[in-house]
Design goal:
By secondary structure, the chain is α+β, with helices and mostly antiparallel strands. The protein folds into 2 domains: 40 residues; 211 residues, 6 Propeller (Neuraminidase). 16% of the residues lie in helices and 46% in strands. The protein has 2 helices and 20 strands. A 4-stranded antiparallel beta sheet has the order 3-2-1-20, with no helix packed on it. A 4-stranded antiparallel beta sheet has the order 4-5-6-7, with no helix packed on it. The radius of gyration is 23 Å and the shape is globular. The two termini are 18 Å apart.
Length: 269
């Protein structure tokens, strides 16, 4: 093999180490299960059991996964091992029915249909504002997802078609987008520009999908587990700056080595 070819392979290997893996949906359940759902097959893979009784939902920002439980605790979860750390409590004795968020913040909706934001360092909750929706008091089927700029909220009484709302994260105000055409939505995930809805309690549960803001949900694959309370698209591992800094000098050193080898070879001929 030529030195130049070997150098190319080494360079490719170094650069490939920073490539993003295929995405799946990291999910949390209404109880304490944490794992992933394959959106193409509906298969669930368990990663861990979280130190909570019931979870309100899941969020991810900058590769950090957050879970809010129904005891008002905010946790950080390692997506690989499922190990969890309690970051803090809201300090307000609130009942949250859903939780979601991303790079614009962490959010939850309480029994009175008010929107709150969470401090990602200590879990403290701050009222953003009322959604304008009637109190759900924990009786409605609800889900919450974040599309990068606003929250997508589904709600409806058990056995009825759920409604879809877009919630302004600055004011808390909800705007109706219409009926989803789907009953018994326990959770949702915003994934590849689509909102995926997770059904529960039926003889066969499905994942339903529609583009952002649309209510034209299409029945997709069978969901092969029960009561998915929330999900987020797994974020690719972002290489730390120090690793990117090491890549350039490494490639330069390899290039210098093979240049020297070629020079010595040419002198020996």
């Amino acid at each position: 093999m030529k030195a130049s070819s070997l150098l190319g392979l080494v360079a490719a290997a170094v650069l490939a180490s920073t490539a993003a893996p295929a995405a799946t949906i990291a999910t949390v359940f209404y109880d304490n299960r944490f794992g992933t759902v394959d959106s193409s097959t509906g298969a669930y893979t368990q990663i861990s059991t979280l130190p909570v009784n019931k979870a309100a939902g899941i969020a991810v920002d900058k590769g950090i996964y957050y879970v809010e439980d129904l005891a008002d605790n905010l946790l950080a979860v390692n997506p690989v091992t499922g190990a969890a750390q309690v970051l803090g409590n809201t300090g307000q004795n609130l009942d949250f029915v859903v939780f979601a968020g991303g790079n614009q913040g962490l959010y939850g909706i309480d029994y009175q249909s008010n929107l709150y934001s969470f401090n990602p360092k200590n879990g403290a909750a701050t009222l953003v504002g009322p959604t304008g929706l009637a109190p759900n008091n924990g009786y409605d089927d609800t889900s919450l997802s974040f599309d990068g700029s606003s929250l997508l909220y589904t709600a409806g009484p058990a056995g009825h078609v759920d409604q879809l709302y877009r919630i302004n994260i600055a004011t808390g105000l909800a705007t109706s987008l219409g009926a989803t055409g789907v009953t018994a939505i326990a959770g949702s995930a915003f994934f590849n520009g689509n909102l995926d809805l997770f059904q529960y309690g039926q003889s066969t549960n499905y994942i339903y999908s529609a583009s952002d803001g649309s209510t034209d949900f299409i029945r997709d694959t069978v969901l092969r587990t029960q009561i998915v309370d929330g999900g987020v698209a797994e974020q690719p591992m972002t290489p730390e700056p120090e690793y990117l800094g090491l890549a350039a000098p490494l490639l330069l050193a390899i290039a210098f080595f093979f240049r020297r080898v070629r020079r010595q070879t040419a002198q020996g001929e």
